[in-house]
Structure formats: structure tokens, C-alpha cells
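User: Sequence in, structure out. Go.
Assistant: Echoing your sequence, followed by the C-alpha cells.
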Amino acid sequence: MTTRLLAACLFAATTCLTSSAWAAPGDRALQDVQVLAADEMQGRATGTDGAAAARIHILQRFAEIGVQPAYGRFQAPFVFASADGASREGVNLVGQIPGRGPGPVLLITAHYDHLGVKDGEIFNGADDNASGVAGLLAIAEAFAEEAPRHTVLFAVLDAEELGLAGAKALAANPPVPLSQIALAINLDMISKSAEGELYAAGAAHFPWLRPRLEAVAAAAPVQLRLGHDGPPWTGHDDWSEASDHAALGAAGVPWVYFGVEDHPEYHQPTDDVGGIPRDFFADAVATVVLAARRFDAELSTIAEAAKRPAPSAPEAAP
């Protein structure tokens, strides 16, 4: 690891160890993005020193919060084939906070990898997806503060940008049987919206989600909209296959995906922390924390609802 990146790792570790505990879940979210999207992380491309530096920060945050390893260890390496057929290696980080009792399991996912360095420019990926990782850590803080009813898994995934490889590896080797996971909440790009809107996709596939998401939207500090999962987005802006939830859904795990619509900084070197609207991001983080608490509270009911065949999604209007 280069001297510069080693210094970044030490900075991230020192920050976590010396900072006071959060006053409320999510208070550290912007700081997490600042660390993960710093130039020193070199865009967090899979297999690079920057990705290793990001893992050090996330593991330090897990330790600070009190997240326990899910496999007896946090790091879950995997091998996958890249687009050119070459064998590549990635590393997922998977932890858990045990529930107060037995029952189904809630899974929270967010990918930490991004595009790295291209033509000398660093693609820092502040919104995509340092923001989602920060949201996942805020949810972990919430459940550390007040223990969940059900066990909650936290999977910080690698190689999403290379074909959802980390999510596929998680689905192939889960820490608990997939049948025990009643719902996966995926966070991918939650910090930036010119319209001030955060979207929740999934209700078109799992109609029992709709009333629960509508209840979250009614209480949310951010403008939460449902959609991007069927008509009228089918064929051009449907997010059903857009991120790691797609690999979990293909393995039979119901999902809900929180994200913002594409913006000019999407997959550009301009996706930096300085462009994140602070108030919107704070409200978006508070919203996904609220949603996770609600889904945990109703997870046994959700697990029963998920066993029933879902009706077909509505057809698009002619």
C-alpha cells in the first residue's frame, strides 16, 4: 500500500477512535462520506489500495458502533470473472446486530466500490456510493442505540460497478439461509437531488411494501416518493435491475431500494462531497433510519406476507 494511502487509512482509523460517540444516529454520516470520498481513497475501485483503505474505515466504524462479525469474521473475500473474462477478487464486509428474539432477519446493503482513477482523474463517488455506506452505518448506530427486535445483517458490498459481483457472492454464500431474510434494504446514492426527492423502489414487485412505505413517507423528513420499479418507468427508467438488490431478488429475497434519480455528477469525477446538499442528505439518512426501524418492527408480518404469491404488477396505460 502506498505511503499516501497508508496515511489515509491511519487518518480514518484515528478519526473513528478519537471522535466522541454520535449524539444521534446519522450525525457522523457526512464525515463518513468525507473520508470515503477523499482523493486519498483514489476512487475505491475493486482490488485497489483505495478499496482497502475504505475497508479500514468501515471496519473501524463497525467496531465503534458495536457491529459483530456475521461469519465469525467481517471480511468475506470472493472471486469473480470480469467483463473480459479475467479472474478478479473482491471483498465484502458483513456484520450483524443480534435481535432481541428469534425470527426472520433484516438485511441492509450498500456498495462501497466506485470507478477509481481514469485518465488521471479521480472518481471519488461521494453520492455513488459513499452516501449509501454512510446511511447503512447510521442504521447500525440506530440499532446499537436501541436493539432491534430481529437480527439485522449489514453487508457493505464490493464490485457493484463490475456487475453486482459482491451481491451475487453474498447471495451464493449468505451468513444465514436466504429463506430467513424477510427483506433486504439496499442504499445506493441517497445524498443528492435537485428536486429534493428520495425514491423507494420495490412496491410494484412486492405490493405488501406499499402501505408500509407510504407510512414511512408520511413521517419522513425528506420527500419520499415510490416508483422506478414498474409502469410508467418500465423500459427506460426502471431501477429493478439497477443495483445490488437485483442479485438478491434473483435469489428470492424481497427488497426495497432507496436512491435518488441520476444527476449531472453521476459517474463523473465531479461527484465530490462538496456538492452534497447537507440538509437533504441529513434528511435522507434520517428517512432510511426511520424505514429500517419500521421494517424491523413489522418483520414477522412482512415475512408472512412475502410467502404469499404477489399479484401481477399493473399494466402500463395505453
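User: And one key feature?
Assistant: The CA atoms of residues 76 and 92 lie 5 Å apart.
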